[in-house]
Amino acid sequence: MSGLSPDDYRRSSGFRRSEPEQRAQTITQNASREQVLAFFGLESVTLPYITPRSALRVPAFNSGVNFLIRTMASLPFEGFRRTKDGPKPLTGRLQTIIRDAPNREWSSWAARRYFWQQVFLYGRGLFAIVRVNGQPYELWPMNVNATRVSMNAWGEKSYTVSMSGSAHPIGKTYAAADVIDVPFMLDADMCNVLSPVQLGEKALQLALAMNDYGSQFFAGGGVPPLSMEGPLPAGAEAMKRAMADVHRAIDTARQSDKPVFGMPPGYKLNQVGYDPAKGQMTDARLFQIQEIARILQLPPVFVQDLSKGTFTNTEQQDLFVVKHVITQWCTALEQEANLKLFGQMKADRYVEHDVDELQRGDFLSRLQGLGQGVQNALISPDEGREVLGRAPKGGNADKLFMQGATVPIDAMGTESDTNGDNGDGDPASQD
User: Cβ(143)–Cβ(149) under 8 Å?
Assistant: First the structure.
């Protein structure tokens, strides 16, 4: 699919005048909207056609999508095994394809970046699982546009890849158990998906149309569409020459930075279109940024909108995006990968994102949190050093600590005797 031609796209931000010979001379009571517009010499508006590629030309959408893609791909992603001593990292090839490199061509970051790009642009991210002797051996990103999802009478899905030149053979079909599938939103048939571009089509179209109109307006020196009034010359050629003279006069004034240009006697120019200020274009474009943030469910600061940002609310938006956006997408991939990699009944192994890595940019808060964990016997100093990527010290640094002022509540009655207190606030008498 492709967008509009340049000429069509340039005409997409407003009504257009129809040619006089094409206008209807009469109109009926039951006329359609298009017939009414044609009767008054107008044509319907055609907004820009939106595809995932053209949607990225909207800066706010581009910013929001790229934030989500890069953030999700940057989170550490590892496999663990549950033991009686707590979770232990997986070892061997399984950990390699999960954490480091899913196959011989893709790094983990690159593969997951492509995966999330498909989710937020096309509505679905796919990984094909290649197994050897029944065990996961490689993970391959799948092109959503080249994959057809179907369902049989039993409700079992299959995924057929039909793109030539890809890493997958033409017509290769995968069972649902061998495909990690995270949709943005499933359609009612449980096979097709709805993407952010589809759901936010009108908002994206309007943003592109306003961007195009603004670029045309300022590229023309800020001169809105004009009509010439006066004794019009007879004949089409004479009219073209008169209009060309006016165009040259306007261009000469614009190029010379002089706001005044001469007009033939008896003629004047009237403004036809509205300039951006009168059309409240700035406010409308700001509103479209907020609409696009709603499409992606992001706080405005993450589409670079600080028009109403303060120190306090931007910090709260930072917390909001982790709690209500990032962690939800993490859960979607984790649970899908757990089911497809390890099976329905194998709960001893699992994959998990390390969302705490998002705190790496807030070093002070990270240190304060680790310090409180050490002081309250939640982690040992060596465990805190491990989080910071530092080597363990061993010895007492591997032990749990608690501040001396904190004691079990049932021991508080004996604390006074231990300190030599006789219970009434005075030191106990000495023999």
Answer: no
How far CA 371 is from CA of 22, 301, 382, in Å, comes to 78, 30, 12
pLDDT at 199 over 90: yes
Q: Name the least confident of 140-154, 192-206, 353-367.
A: 353-367
pLDDT at 376 over 50: yes
d(CA 350, CA 284): 47
Residue 257 dihedral angles phi and psi, to the nearest 5°:
60, 25
At how many degrees (to 10) do helices 59-74 and 327-342 cross? Answer: 50
Q: Give the burial class of 15: count Cβ atoms within 10 A of its Cβ; 0-12 exposed, 13-18 middle, 19 or more buried.
A: middle
Burial 300-322 (b: 16+ CB within 10 A, else e): bbbbebeeeeeeeeeeebbebbe
Alpha helices in 376-429 (DSSP H): 381-387, 412-418
pLDDT tens for 153-178 read 888 999 999 865 555 546 789 999 99
Q: DSSP letters of 56-91? A: TTSHHHHHHHHHHHHHHHHS-EEEEE--TT--EE--
Q: Of 48, 38, 37, nearest to 8 (Cα)?
A: 48
- Of 362, 352, 293, 102, the closest CA to residue 113 belongs to 102
**Cross-sheet strand order for the sheet of 77-81:** 88-89, 77-81, 349-353
pLDDT by residue (tens digit) across 323-336?
A: 899 999 999 999 99
Question: Using CA atoms, how far apart are residues 340 and 94, in angstroms rounded to an integer?
Answer: 13
Which of the 8 DSSP states describes residue 177?
Answer: G
This model's pTM is above 0.90: no
**116 and 72 Cβ atoms separated by less than 8 Å:** yes
Exposure string over 357-373, b if 16+ CB within 10 A, otherwise e: ebbeeeeeebeebbeeb
Sign of CA dihedral 140, 144, 150, 151: positive
Give the up-direction half-sphere exposure of residue 251: CA atoms within 13 A in the CB hemisphere. 6
Q: Cα separation of 365 and 393, whole Å? A: 23
| Residue listed under structure tokens 């490689």 | 138
First to last CA, the chain: 99
Q: How crowded is residue 44: how many other Cβ atoms within 10 Å of its Cβ?
A: 10
pLDDT above 50 for 12: no
